[in-house]
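Q: Is it fine to ask for two folds in a single conversation?
A: Yes, each is treated on its own. Send the first.
Q: Here.
A: Result:
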Amino acid sequence: MTPSLPIIPLPFGSNVHHLYIYNPMMVTDEVYKKKNQKERMLFLAKLLVYLAIVYFNLDHAAVYNKFTWLFRITNAMSFFLGANLVISLAWLVILSWYTRRRLNKPVEKDNFMLGLNRISSVLNTIFFLLAVMVLFGIDLFKFVTSITIVAAAVALLSKDYITNMINGLIIMFSDQLSLGDHVRIGDYKGKILDITLINLILLNDDDEQILVPNSLVFTAVVTNQSKQNVKKVTIEFELDRKLPYTPDQIEERLKKSIEGYNNTYVKDSFRLRTMDIKKDHVVFKVQLTLPFVDKALEQRLRRILNTEIITIAEKGG
């Protein structure tokens, strides 16, 4: 059985469509260009600051004899900025190469850039923590060698988080699941809003955000409805055996209830199947196929069919 997951209700009156369209990872080519330009300007600014610190360290080294605290600050800043510049340069190069490669392809649902952003954020965080250690005069080499046993214990205790992070990166760099896809993961279904290193965020039909651990995505049965060219609408129900209707008559009534929507589903895809015959009731399954994914149309058809099924069950026709 799928474990229960936290469900976060959205604020009353929130515009979910607005939230989804402007998700920072759901961007267009134009936004990518603007972001690329912004990152280039930021890279140049950081480079100038880094060069200024290096110049000050080389040309005014005597100042550090008086102000040792200033040496620690500039040393930590140069360490972090140097690492950050390398990460930013790699990010810009990969981004330029990737956008040129996908020149004629849509990038609204791009997992590659999502994964790249996550990795750069993690690396920047690691180097920032190391820079803080440099600021307080901690020898990084001695620190790393002294915490080997502790690190192994921490890794063992946090293996679930590490597994989630690795699974998250695998999802980001694959094309099986993308932002905006409508999926079913175990007992949970909805639209993918975001993919983080810890969990996958779904928006269900009740406008609630469901946090699904990345490890569950790899162990549960996942159905990606957006990757299919068609959408099947299935309703399973039970009827009393005493009702004076044959399966053909029930199918005909259900067909008639949605005759105004004949052009919205695939011709001849409507069918009623008898799944099981019990002592007091019969289990049926009605199924039809939509030519594309349309949640609003699916909900209308389900409501009409459910209403007709209730009418048959309660009034006997």
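Q: Second one now.
A: Result:
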Amino acid sequence: QIMLCERGTSFGYNNLVSDMRSLMVMRAFGAPVVYDATHSVQQPGGLGGATGGNREFVPGLARAAVATGVAALFMEVHPEPDRALSDGPNSLALAELPGLLATVKRIDQVVKGI
């Protein structure tokens, strides 16, 4: 099975952004759409020799993506994102995951009429 994934689009140097319209456009192809909520806030090379990111936007973007009807979310999660060997600046803290999952599950149920 083919799945489509939105991971952000280059917006100038060192910045990825997500356009929520792309999720609806991809859904129109009939394939399940996955939203990568953590890669979408990445800033490639934003820390000079390493990748930066804006993890504070992950929960809001995840909620917005689920509200468009995506089939799944992808998120990089770490117990201590600031100590992660890779992608720490755009990783969600493990302690934040249960609350976010509960919220997006409720949104998904409303959107899909469950």
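Q: Anything structural to flag on that second result?
A: Two points. The mean pLDDT is 92. The CA atoms of residues 35 and 73 lie 5 Å apart.
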